[in-house]
Each structure stands twice: as structure tokens, then as C-alpha cells.
């Protein structure tokens, strides 16, 4: 893990850009984390995004900084085809077709299987490699939580026992493999649902929530479309992590 | 409104028993509320319960005290047939039949219409009379929120513009009249659902959440039966009221 830049933000949070092989990422840490005079452990949140977004999208940065202000180290990486990563013409075409079909209300399962399915397969090992590296840094002790992209989170929570709690965002559509793996997820969950999410059918999201094997799982649903999640859910998410990571 | 007892609890909260005509109630207020040296307004939460329970049920008292510790005046009354109120043999029989039918998984709509429907009709005016009296007390200024029994809350929020925000508890079953009135409710809502609530069918609760006219409404669902709501939902409820009443 090579750090390529470091700055102290006005709220005292340290923001560092890194690369790990071909994976670009950002790490936000509370001011005290890893300093010689701090013996306090710093739990870690892996903040994962999909949709071809850049990890430096303003609302993703705002979420990361809010969690860092609550005492968490927060890491974001750009998955293949996202942000700073090369993006193929085939990727662009698949995303465009996915958006078109969703907007038209057509079935998207097959596009999901052929495009998102393999992306999950590639992204999960990258998160595990990133986690290996993050946990060697001074002051970043874990425990480790996961927040964001549902399909990747399901696989990661199913295969990596270091993940202690997870917040999943509005994932009605996940590939078939993750629908099956949901019952293998047994850690505490906070599942966020946007009630009118144009891209994630409500009933499928409710069915997915029902399928998780966790004994402690909470669903939060709010009115509005995919990007309309109210800000107080970010605060609720941090309190969820407070209950399980601190 | 006649106060019949007053005590200061060890957390500084003042707990007063009252009667208002034939209505028995309890009022919890933060230590500072209404004192000569406090100019701060004290918002009010009407904490409503059903199920024939007594307002002094330990988990109801714990909820009230938690809200009072957050700066709210909290009032509870025993509705007709509840707690300190006279209860007829017919009431007892109707409740027993309702429980039996729910446990047996039989349809309970007709018992609901004939028993709960009229109880809602009687209880709502009692809450309004109680609210009139509470708002004349020194230091209790409002704004006013409502928490608890769903059917009574729907009617109250539909007819009384003093109610500014409401938290509804696990009400899949409400009488037909309240299913219709739900679209007239337009205040911010927090709707609590127990995912495995033996007495409130999940799909009906989801349909009710969908029906409310409010533009700002949030659903929280947790695993477990009717009385299994985790304690952190009490804290979430107070933060919901903080956003709308303070």
C-alpha cells in the first residue's frame, strides 16, 4: 500500500490517497488514530460503492468524513471499471443498457448476471487484499465493518470472518449467487431501502432482507428514489456501527 | 386536571399521577421544565398504549423516562378498559377472543371492527381533552408528538393539527376507518414494525406504511415478535422527535 498524498482536513481528519497494486483508494482517519499518544483502538469501516461512481463523489466523501468524525477509520476503493480505474467500452455499454432497461421497466436479471455478477467476483478479493493492508497500518486495529454496495457486502460477509457488522444500501437487485449467499450472512445488519427506488424493486429488497441469516437485522426504509436517502441515515448508520464495533 | 401524587425520581425527572374526569394518567417532566429559572420550551410526547395494558407497565415507564431524560414532557393515559379504568366482562371476552383467534391464525377483522374500532372512537377525544389540559401547565409548551398505539395515532394525527410528528408501533391490524384515514396523515412519521409480529401481519403493516400521506416517513423493522422491539429503537424514536419537535 503506497500513500500518494496526505492532507489534514479542517475537522482534523487525515485524508490519504493510496494505491495497492492497481487498486486506487482513499483512507480517512480520525486525527488521533495511530498517533503516539493515542492508545485507543480505531475500528475500520470499508465503504463500498457501485454504479460506476468515483470514490471521490461528494456524497461518498461526506459519508466517509461523518464516520471518521465519529472515530472510525474509513476506506474506499474504486472497484474495476469505477472512478480512476480503466473502463472498457463494453463496461460503458453494459451500464448504459442496464440503465435503459431499468428506466423502461424491463427485466434486467440477465444483464445483472452477465455484468454485475463477474464484477462482484473481481471486487471482493480486492477488498480482502485492501483489508489485509489496512490492518497492518499503525493504529488501525479493527473491528471491521462494511457499508454500501449490497452484493459485494453479501459475498464479503459470507466469506470473510473479519467483517463484524454491515450496512447494506438499497439492494433489491443482487446477482443470483448473492441471493443464495444471503442466508450465509449471520453478522448484525442494517439494511437501507429507498421505498421508491426506480432500480431496486421493493419486494425483492424486502425478500432479500428476509433471507439474511442474521439474528440481528434492522431494515430502514425512507420515501424517495435511489439517491434520496436522508442524511440522518448516515448518522443512524454510525450509531449502528457504534453498537457493534466499539 | 388534578394531580394526585408527585415524586422526583433519582434521575431528576418529576413523575406526577393525575386524573382528568374519569381519565387516569401519568406525566413525566424533565427536572428543569416549568421551573422559574428555565426559559427553555418543553416539547410534549403523548405516549399511547393499547392491549389492555396499564400505563405503569415497566417497559412503558422505561420508555417514558428515556424520553423525559431527552428533554420531553411525556404523558400517558389509560384508555377505556385499560389499567386503572373499569373493565367490563364483555371487554375481557373480546380481548380473549381476539388473542385466541390471532394465535390460531384465524381472521380477526370482524373482532377488530366491533371491539377496537369503537375503542379508537372513545380514546381519541380523551387524548384531545388531556392535551388541552397539559398545554395549560406551566412550562409545557409543545410542539406535540405522539408515540405508540397506531390506530389511535392515525385518527389523532388526521383530526388534530397540534400533533406535529408521530411514531407508530407495529400496527399491521388497524380498523378499516383508520386504514382509510392513513392517507389523511401528512405529518412526519416513524413507523416501527416487528418482522415476525404474530398479531400484525407483515404485508398489512407494509401496506399501511405505504398508504400514509406523509412526504417524510421512515420504516424501521426488526426481527422478532410483537414485544421484541430492541431498546435502541427507543433511542431512535427520541432522535426522530428531536428532528421534528426541537
Tell me what you see in this structure.
The structure is a homodimer of 246-residue chains. With 246 residues, chain A is an alpha/beta fold. In chain A, strand 1 and strand 2 form a beta hairpin. The longest helix of chain A is centred in the middle third of the chain and has 26 residues, at 109-134. The mean pLDDT of chain A is 93. Helices cover 38% and strands 25% of the residues of chain A. The first copy, chain A, has one domain: 3-Layer(aba) Sandwich (Rossmann fold), CATH 3.40.50.1820. Chain A has helices at 58-69, 89-103, 109-134, 150-159, 176-181, 202-211, 232-245; strands at residues 2-8, 14-20, 23-29, 42-48, 73-77, 140-149, 163-169, 189-194, 217-222. Chain A has a nine-stranded mixed beta sheet, sandwiched between helices. The interface between A and B is medium-sized, with 20 and 20 residues.
Biggest interface, chains and residue tallies: A-B, 20 and 20 residues
Indicate the proportion of strand residues of chain A. Answer: 25-35%
Shape of chain A: globular
Distance between the termini of chain A: 26 Å
The neighbouring-strand order within the major sheet of chain A is 1-2-3-5-4-6-7-8-9
Indicate the low-confidence ranges of chain A by residue numbers.
Answer: none
Query: Which bin fits the share of residues in helices of chain A?
Result: 25-40%
Report the strand count of chain A: 9
